[in-house]
Recover the amino acids of this structure.
C-alpha cells in the first residue's frame, strides 16, 4: 500500500479524534409514570454532578405537562455538555410552577459564574 502525506494526515486525524467521538454520554430518562430513571426535570437535574466532565442528556420519554420550577446549577468542563431533549415522537410541555407570580417565574436559570 502506498502511503501519501494526505493518507497519513487523515489517519492521524482519525486516531486523534476517535476518543472524543466515542466518549460515552450519560442519559437520564424522564417519564411521569415512573417508566424512566426519574419522574421530573428537577429530579433529573438533581442526578447531575456539580461539574460535568462528560456529555449528559436529559430526555423526556412522554408527552406530559411538566409544571415545576427548576434551577440549573452545574459547571461544564472541557468535554462536558448538557442537552435537554424530547425523545423521538413525543412533545412534552414545560411550564413554570403555578406558585410563582407573573414576571417572576422562569423554567430554568443557568449559573454562569
Amino acid at each position: 500500500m502506498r502511503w501519501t502525506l494526505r493518507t497519513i494526515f487523515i489517519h492521524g486525524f482519525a486516531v486523534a479524534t476517535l476518543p472524543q467521538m466515542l466518549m460515552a454520554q450519560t442519559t437520564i430518562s424522564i417519564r411521569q409514570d415512573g417508566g424512566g430513571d426519574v419522574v421530573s426535570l428537577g429530579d433529573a437535574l438533581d442526578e447531575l454532578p456539580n461539574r460535568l466532565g462528560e456529555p449528559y442528556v436529559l430526555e423526556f420519554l412522554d408527552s406530559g405537562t411538566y409544571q415545576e420550577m427548576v434551577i440549573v446549577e452545574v459547571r461544564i468542563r472541557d468535554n462536558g455538555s448538557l442537552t435537554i431533549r424530547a425523545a423521538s415522537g413525543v412533545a412534552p410541555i414545560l411550564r413554570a410552577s403555578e406558585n410563582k407570580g407573573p414576571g417572576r417565574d422562569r423554567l430554568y436559570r443557568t449559573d454562569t459564574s
Q: What stands out?
A: The chain is about 20% helix and 25% strand.
